[in-house]
Specification:
39% strand; 135 residues; 3-stranded antiparallel β-sheet; mainly beta; binds nickel (II) ion; 6-stranded antiparallel β-sheet
Amino acid sequence: MGMRMFDRATAEAQSVSGVTVVRWEQYELAGTVPFQAMWYEVPPGAAAPLDRHPERELSVVVAGTAEVEAGGDTVRVPSGSAFLLDGGEAHRVRNASATSPLVVFSAYWMPAEQTVGSRAAAVGSAGGGGEGPDV
Ligand code: NI
């Protein structure tokens, strides 16, 4: 398969609690890459809903600054930097700015069975529909 370009501006988006989500499922990459992915945009001054899922999640801040709450800590992640969440780790992402949008790219995948064990089974997903992380 040759190079493919994914244009966020023309992609199919959905609104999840005020957050604009562009899921990469629409690119039908399943089986060709070992992860799923999405972009999401949090409006100025807003926060994404609390999220928790068995997948590990690597997020790169594409625009703006994220305020990430997880494991009792809150960390500011500026544009160009990234954060990695463990499976089962509850997290909430806030837009740190009252004027600029926050755009994040996230890739997520189920951890290898050995490292997850009964933990993922116990954690389950707080999101709706079992299609992976909400945001
Ligand atoms: Ni998540």
